[in-house]
Design goal:
single chain; about 100 residues; 5 helices; globular; CHP01589_pln; Angiotensin-converting enzyme 2
C-alpha cells in the first residue's frame, strides 16, 4: 500500500473517530462521510469494521453507552455536518501542506 493509500485510510479513520464523538452509528457515519467527504460507504464500512476488530473493548463500551450518549449529548444535524466538513477541510489542508514540503 502506498503513502497516499495509507494517508487516505488514516483520514477516513480520523473522520470515523469524529463520528464516534458525535455518537453516530456505523450507518449514520457512512451516510455523513459519503455526503460531506465523498467517501464511498464501503470504504467507511471497511475501516469501521477494522477499527472494531482492533478495539473490541472500546466498541463494546461505546455500544453499551450509545443509547445514553445519543439522548444526553445530541448535536443537531447542521452542527454535526459543519464539524465533519471542517474536519475534512483541515485534513485536506494538512495533506496538501505535507506534499509541498
Amino acid at each position: 500500500m502506498g503513502d497516499s493509500s495509507s494517508s487516505y485510510i488514516h483520514m477516513v479513520q480520523h473522520l470515523i473517530e469524529k463520528c464516534l464523538i458525535f455518537g453516530m452509528t456505523k450507518e449514520e457515519c457512512m451516510e455523513a462521510l459519503c455526503k460531506h467527504a465523498n467517501i464511498k460507504p464501503v470504504i467507511t464500512s471497511t475501516v469501521w469494521s477494522e477499527l472494531e476488530k482492533e478495539n473490541m473493548e472500546f466498541f463494546e463500551a461505546y455500544w453499551s453507552q450509545s443509547q445514553y450518549l445519543r439522548k444526553s449529548y445530541q448535536i443537531s444535524e447542521p452542527v454535526t455536518n459543519e464539524q465533519i466538513q471542517k474536519t475534512v477541510f483541515d485534513l485536506k489542508l494538512k495533506s496538501s501542506k505535507r506534499k509541498d514540503d
